[in-house]
Design brief:
single chain; 289 residues; Rossmann fold; 2 domains; 42% helix
Length: 289
């Protein structure tokens, strides 16, 4: 593994190693893996979890993080992405990028001689998907054969999760209104039927950053796809595996999910958020250690 631009670029052995190392680093968070090393963090999009988890992880491994905002770098505007990649490679030991355009991630990785980690793009969110499946491993032990219903549109999180679920034996189903599907996955347009035999119900905001002009339409189109107490009553009961509720955050409470569900006993939402830290540390250790 030279970079982490998407889940598709990972081998099964690398995925297993990320999960193994994540568990190890969660038990023993402080180490010197990145001692004397610097990681540049290019953030074109706002962030809470991603920035804090990466900066904290770098610190816990003895490294130093340099935050570069969009105003500072202006990728492709102030200078070419290729030149930014070549230049930063002379200074730092790795680059984390959070951007709107996946092409920027790929171009940066092409011209950088140090590892590049995709911390989110419009196409892919590999760190989130890895943290999600790692969380399921913690909660379930054996994840093969689980059924995960993603209630929302075919966005970057759904796309990354779909690939990782296939690689780890989880059945992934996207449940969305017509017109919001994505490629290469099973689709359902009926929330009530989709969740009946679900082991995991996962949701995300209906309107992502950059889609604000579509907000009114999306609120209307997704109205019946809210994850609420009424929907959960359709899940089959009496199974030996309890239902789990997931959300990558930030949540628009009262839209895609209700308070009673996200704060309820089935929710593992904040376990997911925590595990971003441990999984990203594992990735950085493998790429830069």
């Amino acid at each position: 593994m030279e970079d982490l631009t998407s889940i598709k670029g990972l081998s099964s052995a690398e995925i297993d190693e990320i999960f193994r190392l994540s568990a190890e680093l969660k038990k023993e968070p402080l180490n010197k893996t990145l001692q004397g090393k610097t990681v540049a963090m290019i953030f074109e999009k706002p962030s809470t979890r991603t920035r804090v988890s990466f900066e904290t992880g770098i610190y816990q491994m003895g490294g130093h993080a340099v935050l570069l905002s969009d105003a500072t770098v202006q990728l492709g505007k102030r200078e070419t992405i290729a030149d930014v990649g070549r230049t930063l490679s002379r200074y730092v030991n790795g680059i984390v990028i959070r951007t709107f355009e996946h092409e920027k991630v790929l171009e940066l990785a092409k011209y950088s001689s140090v590892p590049v980690i995709n911390a989110l793009s419009d196409y892919s969110h590999p760190c989130q998907a890895l943290a999600d499946v790692f969380t399921l491993l913690e909660k379930k032990g054996n994840i093969k054969g689980l059924k995960l219903i993603f209630m929302g549109d075919g966005n970057n999180v759904a796309r990354s999760l779909n690939v990782l679920c296939k690689r780890t034996g989880i059945k992934f189903v996207l449940c969305c209104p017509k017109g919001y599907e994505m490629e290469d996955c099973e689709i359902s347009h009926d929330p009530t039927q989709a969740v009946k035999d679900a082991d995991v119900i996962y949701t995300d905001v209906w309107t992502s950053m950059g889609q604000e002009k579509e907000t009114k339409k999306r609120l209307k189109d997704f109205a019946k796809y809210q994850v609420n107490g009424k929907l959960l009553k359709n899940v089959e009961v009496g199974r030996d595996r309890p239902l789990l509720i997931m959300h990558c955050l930030p949540a628009h409470r009262g839209e895609e999910i209700t308070d009673d569900v996200i704060d309820g006993p089935n929710s593992i939402v904040f376990d997911q958020a925590e595990n971003r830290l441990h999984v990203q540390k594992a990735v950085m250790a493998m790429l830069m250690g």
